[in-house]
Amino acid sequence: MKYANIIVDISLEKLDKTFQYLVPEELNETLRPGMQVVIPFGNRKITGYILELTDTPEFDPARMKPILSLSEKAVPIEAQLIELAVWMKETYGCTLNQALKTVLPSRRRVKSRASKEVPAALQNISLQPPKTLNEEQQAAVNGILSVYPQPSLLFGVTGGGKTEVYMALIDAMRAQGKQTILLIPEISLTYQNLRRFYERFGNRVAVVNSRLSAGEKYDSYENARSGRIDIMIGPRSALFTPFTNLGMIIVDEEHESAYNSETSPRYRAVETAITRGRMAGAGVVLGSATPSLESYTKALSGEYALFRITSRARVGSVLPEVKICDLRKELREGNKTIFSRILAEAIKDRLEKREQVMLFLNRRGYAGFISCRSCGYVFRCPHCDVSLTSHRNGQLVCHYCGLSVPMPDRCPSCGSPYIAGFGLGTQKVETMVKKYFPSARTLRMDMDSTSRKDSHGKILSSFAKGEADILIGTQMIIKGHDFPRVTLVGILAADLSLYSDDFRAGERTFQLLTQAAGRAGRAGAEGLVVIQTYNPENYAIETASHQDYEVFYEKEMAYRRLLSYPPAGQMLSVLITDPKEETAVREAIRLADGVRAHWPESGIRMIGPSAAGISRIQDVYRQQLFIKHPSRKLLLQIRDFMELEKKTGLQIDLL
Ligand code: ADP
Ligand code: ZN
Ligand code: ZN
C-alpha cells in the first residue's frame, strides 16, 4: 500500500503541516510529487498538493481516507514549483521543507514601502526602439528559436552584444504571450545594465534583488503571477518567479559561481534552470564569453545547441591588444615596483590623454601560495596538482590529501633564497599608484570600500562620470560594466587566482582574465591589456591572452580527465565539521570507512579525509573528503548513506 503526504495550504508558514491519505489502486502509477489532487477534508472536498509518496503509514491505515481523484483544473504554477522542490531535495540533499521555502514565494502580504532603489527611478524611462541586429546576433536569435525549447549556449565575446540577443528573444516570447526570467549576477544588477531593459520594455519588466524588502518582493511576484509583467530580472532566486506561462529562462554570465547557493538547499542555478525549463516546457539560454567547462561540454555533446558571437557588436569596437609581462624578468632587470615598465608607460600615456585605466587584482581564492620570486616556481602537491599552502608552523600543506612538508629555505628549481607568499592588497596598490602617479585621481573598490550599502554603485557611477582616472579593485570591477573611456586594463598579478587549492583554479583564472581584458576599449578606442605574471607559460594565462577559449578548454579537459575531476568525472565534496578536532577527524575516517565497506567492489576513488582548505572556522574544525566515481547515481546513494550515518556536522556537494 502507498500513502501520500499532502499539504492543503501552501502559505509558507504552514508547510510543515502535512496530512496523509491512501493512494487508491487506480492512481498508483500516476501520482507524482507536486500533483494537485482532490481529497476529503472534514466534510468538504478540497484540493491539496502531493509532497511525498511513501510506504510508511503515519497512523492506522484503517482510519485513513483515500485520495478521491486528480484535480481537473489546469496545472497551477504551485504544482510546478513543488515538483521542482522535490527535484532539488533529491539533487542537493536538503530537506523538502528547505526546498519548498526556497521555491515558493512568501504569501504573507507585507506592507510594501516605496523603494529608494534604482529600479523605481527607472520606471519612467521611455521606450526605445531596438537596435538592428548584426548577422551573428540575428543568427543566434533564429537558431535559438528554431531549436526551442532545447537549451542553448550563447557563447559570445565580451562586447558581442548578447544583451540585444536576449531582448530579441524576450520579444519573441512576448509575441506568443509567454514570459521570461533573466538571471544576472547580483553584482551586475546595476543602473547601467538595467536601463536598457526599462528603455525597451517599460513597465512590463520587474527587477528583484537581495536588498528589496519582503513586501516589495511579494508585490513583484504577485505581478508575475497575475501577468502584469512578463520579464523578471534578478539574481539566482528570481529563478522561482511564479510565471504561469513561462517561455524562457536566460542565464547571463552562466559561468559565475555566484549562481551556486552557499546555504541549504545548495542548489546550482544553471542546473536548476535547465530542470525548471524542462518541467515547464520552456527554453533555456545560457550566455557567456567564458562558458563553464560543464556547459561547453554539454554544448559539444549536442545536449545544448551552440551559438557563437565572435566579434564586437558596436561599430568600430575591436577586441583589445593583450600583452603578457614576465615579472621574473622585471625583477632580474632591477624593477622592484609592482608596475612593470610597460604598464607604467601605458598608465602615464593614458593619464596624459585623459583616458581611463582599470587596475585589477584577482585575489579571489587566493590561499597563501608560496612561490620563488626569482624563477616563479610554485610549490605544488605531487599527488593532487594543487598548490601547497603555507601554515604558521612553517609547514607547506596540501589541502586535498593532507601532505605536509617543511618549508625549504631555497627554491628547489633555481636555488634562489627569495621564497615568499604574495602579499599584495588593493590598498597597497592604491598607495603605490599615488606614489608613482601623483597626479592621478583614484577610486578603490574591494570588500572594505563597498561594505556600506550603495557604495558599490556610487563608486562605479563616479568612475563612469569621469571623476577618477584610475579604478583599482578586485574582481568586483570587472563584472559586465561598460566604461567607454577605459582604454587600459592592468592585471597586476595574474597568478594569484591560479594557486588556490581548488581544482577549478585554472578555469577561474581564465574567466577572470578574459572578463578583465574585455573591459578595455569597449567603445571603439583602441584598448590595451597588460597581464603581469610570474608564469607567462601557464596555459590558462597564455590562452586568456589570446582569448582562445577552445585551446584552453582542450588543455583544461585533459587535466580534468587525467584526475577524473568534473565534468570528466563525478565527484562528491564532503565536509565534516565538529568543535572538537579529534571528533571531526575520527568521524571523517569512520564515514569514509563506512562507504568503503558498503560499496567494496565499486571502484570508488577517495581523496582524504584531510583538513579542509580552511581547517577551522569559528572554532569548528573542518575535515574534507572527496569521493570520485563515474556514476552520479551511485554518488547520490553514497550521499544519502552518509546523511543517515552522520554524527557530526556534514555538508555534501555533488561537484
Ligand atoms: P555583451 O553583453 O555581449 O558583453 P553588450 O550586450 O553589452 O555585450 O553590447 C556591447 C555594446 O554593443 C553595447 O554598447 C551595445 O549597445 C552595443 N551593441 C549591441 N548590439 C549592437 C548592434 N546590433 N548594433 C550596434 N551596437 C550594438
Ligand atoms: Zn626559483
Ligand atoms: Zn595532495
From TrEMBL:
<keyword id="KW-0235">DNA replication</keyword>
<dbReference type="GO" id="GO:0006302">
    <property type="term" value="P:double-strand break repair"/>
</dbReference>
<feature type="binding site">
    <location>
        <position position="384"/>
    </location>
    <ligand>
        <name>Zn(2+) 2</name>
    </ligand>
</feature>
<feature type="domain" description="Helicase ATP-binding">
    <location>
        <begin position="143"/>
        <end position="309"/>
    </location>
</feature>
<feature type="binding site">
    <location>
        <position position="414"/>
    </location>
    <ligand>
        <name>Zn(2+) 1</name>
    </ligand>
</feature>
<keyword id="KW-0547">Nucleotide-binding</keyword>
<feature type="binding site">
    <location>
        <position position="411"/>
    </location>
    <ligand>
        <name>Zn(2+) 1</name>
    </ligand>
</feature>
<dbReference type="InterPro" id="IPR001650">
    <property type="entry name" value="Helicase_C-like"/>
</dbReference>
<dbReference type="InterPro" id="IPR005259">
    <property type="entry name" value="PriA"/>
</dbReference>
<dbReference type="Pfam" id="PF17764">
    <property type="entry name" value="PriA_3primeBD"/>
</dbReference>
<keyword id="KW-0347">Helicase</keyword>
<keyword id="KW-0413">Isomerase</keyword>
<dbReference type="Pfam" id="PF00270">
    <property type="entry name" value="DEAD"/>
</dbReference>
<protein>
    <recommendedName>
        <fullName>Replication restart protein PriA</fullName>
        <ecNumber>5.6.2.4</ecNumber>
    </recommendedName>
</protein>
<dbReference type="GO" id="GO:0016787">
    <property type="term" value="F:hydrolase activity"/>
</dbReference>
<comment type="function">
    <text>Initiates the restart of stalled replication forks, which reloads the replicative helicase on sites other than the origin of replication. Recognizes and binds to abandoned replication forks and remodels them to uncover a helicase loading site. Promotes assembly of the primosome at these replication forks.</text>
</comment>
<keyword id="KW-0479">Metal-binding</keyword>
<dbReference type="GO" id="GO:0006310">
    <property type="term" value="P:DNA recombination"/>
</dbReference>
<feature type="binding site">
    <location>
        <position position="401"/>
    </location>
    <ligand>
        <name>Zn(2+) 2</name>
    </ligand>
</feature>
<dbReference type="Pfam" id="PF00271">
    <property type="entry name" value="Helicase_C"/>
</dbReference>
<keyword id="KW-0378">Hydrolase</keyword>
<feature type="binding site">
    <location>
        <position position="375"/>
    </location>
    <ligand>
        <name>Zn(2+) 1</name>
    </ligand>
</feature>
<dbReference type="GO" id="GO:0006269">
    <property type="term" value="P:DNA replication, synthesis of primer"/>
</dbReference>
<keyword id="KW-0639">Primosome</keyword>
<dbReference type="InterPro" id="IPR011545">
    <property type="entry name" value="DEAD/DEAH_box_helicase_dom"/>
</dbReference>
<comment type="subunit">
    <text>Component of the replication restart primosome.</text>
</comment>
<dbReference type="InterPro" id="IPR027417">
    <property type="entry name" value="P-loop_NTPase"/>
</dbReference>
<feature type="binding site">
    <location>
        <position position="372"/>
    </location>
    <ligand>
        <name>Zn(2+) 1</name>
    </ligand>
</feature>
<dbReference type="GO" id="GO:1990077">
    <property type="term" value="C:primosome complex"/>
</dbReference>
<dbReference type="GO" id="GO:0006270">
    <property type="term" value="P:DNA replication initiation"/>
</dbReference>
<comment type="similarity">
    <text>Belongs to the helicase family. PriA subfamily.</text>
</comment>
<dbReference type="InterPro" id="IPR040498">
    <property type="entry name" value="PriA_CRR"/>
</dbReference>
<dbReference type="InterPro" id="IPR041236">
    <property type="entry name" value="PriA_C"/>
</dbReference>
<dbReference type="Pfam" id="PF18319">
    <property type="entry name" value="Zn_ribbon_PriA"/>
</dbReference>
<dbReference type="GO" id="GO:0005524">
    <property type="term" value="F:ATP binding"/>
</dbReference>
<feature type="binding site">
    <location>
        <position position="398"/>
    </location>
    <ligand>
        <name>Zn(2+) 2</name>
    </ligand>
</feature>
<feature type="domain" description="Helicase C-terminal">
    <location>
        <begin position="406"/>
        <end position="563"/>
    </location>
</feature>
<feature type="binding site">
    <location>
        <position position="381"/>
    </location>
    <ligand>
        <name>Zn(2+) 2</name>
    </ligand>
</feature>
<keyword id="KW-0862">Zinc</keyword>
<dbReference type="GO" id="GO:0008270">
    <property type="term" value="F:zinc ion binding"/>
</dbReference>
<dbReference type="GO" id="GO:0003677">
    <property type="term" value="F:DNA binding"/>
</dbReference>
<dbReference type="InterPro" id="IPR014001">
    <property type="entry name" value="Helicase_ATP-bd"/>
</dbReference>
